[in-house]
Amino acid sequence: MSTESPDGTSDRRPYVESPIIMTTVRVITPFVFTLGLFIMFHGADSSGGGFQGGVIVGTVVLMLGIAFGVRVTREWVGPQLPIAMIGLGVLAFLLVGVGSVLLGGGFLEYGVYGIEDASKYGIEAVELAIGLVVSGVVIGLFFITASGLGDEGGSQ
Predict the structure, then answer these.
(1) 90 phi and psi angles, rounded to 5 deg
(2) Is the dihedral of CA 29, 31, 34, 36 positive or negative?
(3) Which segments of the chain have a pLDDT < 70?
């Protein structure tokens, strides 16, 4: 949003505080986060999965950014969280996949783990790993895109 100041210069205000939006986001955030996790874990048995759930979980940070301001949210989340989420997700995926190879099976062959319902738990672990990667990417892309809306140099 841009307004003209009395001297004719443009005053950019990308964030306007709204008590209604802030209250709504405070109330629905835990439910949206829980829905994202549910969809991630439900991917092993029915429709849903890591990608869809990861996007929903990543959307929680977007909602916080819209409600409380991108700068405040970026400072609260920090630059390390999206990177850590992506790294942890890739590591978890590789551990599940390569672990089965080290036990004498094929990549992502869950049966070699020797536990009951190994396939179900293995798929859930992979879905969670994919969800972590996707959430980290969504959050990172949000902050990268939002930094382009600020002043020159990406400061907002």
Answers:
(1) -65, -40
(2) negative
(3) 1-15, 44, 47, 149-156
pTM across the whole model: 0.81
CA distance 68 to 18: 9
**Is 118 in a helix, a strand, or coil?**
helix
**DSSP-derived 3-state class of residue 53:** helix
Domains in the chain: boundaries: 2-147
Torsion angle defined by CA atoms of residues 47, 51, 56 and 61, in that order, rounded to the nearest 10 degrees:
170
Report pLDDT for 62. 94
Q: 126-146 b/e with 16+ CB inside 10 Å = b? A: bbbbbbbbbbbbbbbebbeeb
